[in-house]
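Human: Can I borrow your eye for a moment on a structure tokenisation matter? Separate attempts, laid side by side, tell us more than any discussion would. Could you pick a protein and write out its sequence and tokenised fold? No explanation is needed for now; the record alone will do.

Assistant:
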Amino acid sequence: MAKLSIVVIGSLNMDMVVRTERAPQAGETLFGQRFALSPGGKGANQAAAAARLGAEVTMIGRVGRDAFGSELLEVMRQEHIHTQHIVESETQATGVASIVVDGEGENRIIVVPGANIEMGPADIAALEPVLSQADIVVMQLETDILMCEHAAAMAGGHGIPVILNPAPAQELGDDLLQHVTYLTPNETEAGILAGIAVNSIDDAEQAARILLQKGVQNVIVTLGSKGALVVNKAGSLHIPGFPVQAVDTVAAGDSFNGALAVQLTGGKTLDEAVRFANAVGALAVGKQGAIPSLPRLPEVERFLKEAAEW
């Protein structure tokens, strides 16, 4: 079997996006400006982000046997992602995400996982021949946690590095964390995982140090417009972000993770990979939608060249 380069194990959702000047208070009804259906899900977003940057990507996941599922499969094919390991569930509907985007571009999301949660340890065990040929495995937490643990251990057993984007935020056991090569929480997620409040870059470093003690090899705390903090046994380094006007932060973190995977499989150092991923995230927040906002490689290269002249 040829190298698959990047294998993404994760969610495929249809995003239902409402845009409004501000999010409603409890019991309040507001008028919105726009509504759109947009293909997404953290797994699909990360797979598409990597594919648009030139990587060969295989997606492992579940959709329902319904219109949303058919559309997501077609979108994945259009992005030149290998879809033979995306299974159509006979009993569960395709996952959906309800997303409210306010006037500042910030988002509030509720996910109904549907078919995404159906894939378990036995399903991923059957795909060991696929995982064992990957250059890197990328996962998130919109799927069954036991399946994630099994996949991470399997990849580790074959010496395959694992990127885990621990979102949506939840506490994780050391059984999973000890198999994670690159952990990519945002500030909120880092605080939940480490059990401390994270309100500054110093706090983020303290949280990252706690996570290193749990077995993670590298912690990359994403800091939004402030960039990212890389922490490992060699030390810590704050890699600044790029100043841009945010239109929509949906998929910003997913674009970062997809880009990180591409750069690492391409032989870049971690610091170089994170700077590139920061640029991809900056470009993604400048456009609306999840997958539609993801930049392609020439756009990123132009952006980085222009940024060097700022």
